[in-house]
Amino acid sequence: MNKSDLVEFISGNLPSLAARDVEVIVNTIFDCMTEQLQHGGRIEIRGFGSFEVRTRRARLGRNPKTGASVDVAERRVPFFKVGKELRERVNHE
Amino acid sequence: MTKAEIIEQIYEKVGFSKKESAEIVELVFDTMKDTLEKGEKIKISGFGNFVVRQKRPRVGRNPQTGEEIEISARRVLTFRPSQVLKAALNGEPIPHEVEE
Predict the structure, then answer these.
(1) Do A33 and B1 touch (CB under 8 A)?
(2) Mean pLDDT of chain A, nearest integer
(3) Min distance A68 CA to chain B CA atoms (Å)
(4) A38 φψ region: left (φ > 0), alpha (ψ -120 to 50), beta (else)
(5) Cα A83 to chain center, whole Å?
(6) Which of A2, B12, B31, B36 lies in the 20 to 30 Å Cα band around B45?
(7) Fold identical between B1-38 and B39-100?
C-alpha cells in the first residue's frame, strides 16, 4: 500500500469528503511529523508507535571500493518504536 | 507531539472542523494498522516504509540470570526512513526519491 492507495481507501470510507481534500490531509499528517522530527521532537501515536530522533556519533568510515578512510560527520536519524497494540496485532497474538 | 496535536494542526492548516480532522487522522492510523496486521507493507513517499518482517526462532538469554531461553518465531514491524526524511533531519538538500 502506498500513499495514494491510503488516500483512495480513506476517501471510499468517508464519502462526504473529496479525494483531493483527503490527499491534502494525509500529506499534512506526514509533513507535521517530519517537521516535528526536524526540531528534534518526539511523536507518540497511541497504539501505533513512537518516533524520535537519535544521534549517530561522528566516525571514521571507509570507502568500500578504494579502502580510503573518510570522516563521517555526526548524523541524526529517525527511530521508530512500534506500540504495544500494533506489535501484538502484527504478530497475531 | 501526540495525535491530538496532529489533529490541531490539520484543523489550523487545512481548515476542516475539529471533528472531521479527528475522524480522518484516526482513520489514517487505523487503516495503516489494519494493513500491517495483514502483513502488507506501507510505503509513504518522502517519509518512509513500514515493513513486516518474519523472524526465525532463536536462543536468547535472560540477562539477569544468564539462563538460556528460546525466543519464538515472530512477525515484527520495522520502519525504514526515506532518504528525504533522513536528509531533512540533517539539513541536507532533498534528494529525488528513488523507488524501492
Answers:
(1) yes
(2) 94
(3) 24
(4) alpha
(5) 14
(6) B12
(7) yes
Superfamily in which the A46-93 domain is placed by CATH: IHF-like DNA-binding proteins (4.10.520.10)
CA of B32 vs chain A CAs: smallest distance (Å) = 8
Contact across the interface for B33 and A47, Cβ inside 8 Å: yes
Cβ contact B79–A29 (<8 Å):
no
Given a cut of 80, whether residue B96 has pLDDT beyond it is no
Residue of B nearest to A1 (CA): B42
Which chain A residue has the Cα nearest residue B12? A28
Note the pLDDT tens digit of each residue in A32-62: 999 999 999 999 999 999 999 999 999 999 9
Distance of CA B44 to the CA centre of its chain: 9
Please give the distance of CA B26 from its chain centroid, rounded to a whole number.
15
Enter the C-alpha cell of residue B23: 475522524
Q: Domain coordinates of chain A in residue numbers?
A: 1-39, 46-93
Whether A30 sits inside 8 A of B42 (CB atoms) is no
Would you kindly state where each structural domain of chain B is located, as residue ranges? 1-38, 39-100
B33 → closest Cβ in A26, A41, A86:
A86
Q: What is the band of B99 on the pLDDT scale with cuts at 50, 70, 90?
A: low
What's the CATH architecture for B39-100? Irregular (4.10)
- The one-character DSSP state at B64 is T
Task: Work out the widest C-alpha separation in chain B, in whole angstroms.
Answer: 57
In CATH, what number does B1-38 get? 4.10.520.10
